[in-house]
Specification:
alpha/beta, Amidase signature (AS) enzymes, 11-stranded mixed β-sheet
């Protein structure tokens, strides 16, 4: 496999497979070889399912040859975060407690990828129990950033971000509770889409917070994210949190470009305490969109002050409830950082939790969407800082600063996407985030794609 082929878009590879110009078996084998070569440097994969992947690739090749092409995921190698259950394949959630668990069934989103013909390469490393942003895992070792292996890839879907950016899968699935798709996308220089809460099933996904968790894709292009999102979307009777809403083809209208796009730029909060290079790159991205025909409008977001503590109280309390059978009884089996967060969750009062839930429900019933009156999307930096080093996060954990912007949209349940907007002087990626109304992923992917068109191509990470 040439590096060029490993790093092209999912959509481009799919076209070659559909035209029978590329063998899914050869593609999968070469991707497995690439994982064997690069994964020791990144620790992006916890488990590689080589035999299963090749069996799936052979089946895909037979079906394509027989004219039974299923669509753009058919025969394409992908991977999933290790908190999505995979039948007969170790699923750990990055924890010591589940280190030997072999599920009896696939998570719904994993099954939907398989139904679309995707080839599963394995399970991706993550922050323990999805409860953190560094993916510095005490039990399985740190996942490393492909731009600088001394830095964190973000989390909790760190393996997904690293694998996607480094060309170790054409798409990956992550989960997002406070930013865990968009943070690694920003730090690793790829696209991360968190859909509307209830768009994709969480059945078979080990929870961090039932009310805040979202499943979604990390890809190298916005169009690829739209493709994967459509495949995993839809109501699921096994997950009462999903809603029976059709999953449109989000590629329709995605190429309309920036002309006529109305972008709301929050006046405050998202522009405070920014690393200077993050601010420079994010403001340049918005200026480039405006120069290409988009309209920028300042917007007020007065409810932010209520949303920040509410998301913390909901997450902490629900995480403590989920872990109650094992924590604090098995405290020694949890990393100290995760144990400290669970202690904090046990301290959240019932009054505080109920008050936070009321704030969340008000936001999701229309209060948050009202903040977009007169605009199509909101835009802001994804993360206030570039990726810190693994060592610095161990010395001074800045998790709360890292999630400050992303977690807002987990609470509101609105779709949000991080798109790379350039690199710092230290060659570290920075992301710009677009957020839309609930169930309006179409505007979010349109905005992300419009920015890609304005921005042009970006280089791959050095390790790739």
């Amino acid at each position: 496999m040439t590096d060029d082929l490993a790093l092209v878009s999912l959509e481009d590879v799919a076209k070659l497979i559909a035209a029978k110009q590329l063998s899914p078996v050869e593609l999968t084998q070469q991707m497995l070889d690439r994982i064997e070569r690069l994964n020791p440097k990144l620790n992006a994969y916890l488990t590689v399912t080589a035999d299963q992947a090749l069996d799936a690739a052979r089946a895909a090749e037979r079906e394509v040859a027989a004219g039974r092409y299923r669509g753009p995921l058919h025969g394409v190698p992908v991977a999933v975060k290790d908190l999505f259950a995979t039948k007969g394949v170790r699923t750990t959630a990055g924890s010591k407690i589940l280190a030997g668990w072999l599920p009896d069934e696939d998570a719904t989103v994993v099954a939907r990828l398989a139904d679309a013909g995707a080839v599963g390469l394995g399970k991706l490393g993550m922050h323990e129990w999805a409860y953190g942003v560094s993916s510095d895992n005490a039990h399985f070792g740190p996942v490393r950033n492909p731009w600088d292996t001394e830095r964190i890839p973000g989390g909790s879907s760190g393996g997904a971000g690293a694998a996607t950016a480094a060309g170790l899968a054409y798409a990956t699935l992550g989960s997002d509770t406070g930013g865990s798709i968009r943070i690694p996308a920003s730090f690793c220089g790829c696209v991360g889409l968190m859909p509307t809460y209830g768009r994709a099933s969480l059945h078979g996904a080990i929870p961090l917070s039932w009310t805040l968790d979202h499943a979604g894709p990390l890809t190298r292009t916005v169009r690829d994210a739209a493709i994967v999102m459509r495949a995993i979307s839809g109501a699921d009777p096994l997950d009462p949190g999903t809603e029976d809403r059709p999953a449109p083809d989000w590629l329709e209208g995605i190429e309309r470009g920036p002309k006529g796009l109305r972008i709301g730029v929050p006046k405050h909060y998202f522009w405070q305490d920014l690393d200077p290079e993050v601010e420079r790159l994010a403001r340049r991205a918005l200026a480039d969109l405006e120069a290409a025909g988009a309209t920028l409008r300042d917007v007020d977001m007065p409810d932010i002050a209520r949303y920040v503590p509410a998301v913390t109280n909901v997450m902490f309390a629900e995480a403590a409830a989920y872990h109650a059978p094992n924590f604090p009884l098995r405290r020694a089996d949890y990393a100290p950082q995760v144990a400290a967060l669970l202690d904090a969750g046990l301290a959240v009062t019932g009054v505080a939790y109920v008050d936070a839930l009321r704030t969340l429900q008000e936001a999701r019933r229309g209060a948050a969407d009202a903040l977009l009156d007169g605009v199509d999307v909101l835009a802001m930096p994804t993360i206030p800082v570039p990726a810190p080093t693994i060592a610095s996060m161990r010395e001074a954990d800045i998790t709360l600063r890292i999630v400050a912007f992303t977690a807002i949209f987990d609470l509101t349940g609105q779709p949000a996407m991080s798109v790379p907007c350039g690199n710092t002087a230290d060659n570290l990626p920075v992301g710009v985030m677009f957020a839309g109304r609930r169930w309006d992923e179409a505007s979010v992917v349109r905005a992300g794609r419009a920015y890609e068109q304005v921005r042009g191509p970006l280089p791959a990470p050095p390790i790739a």
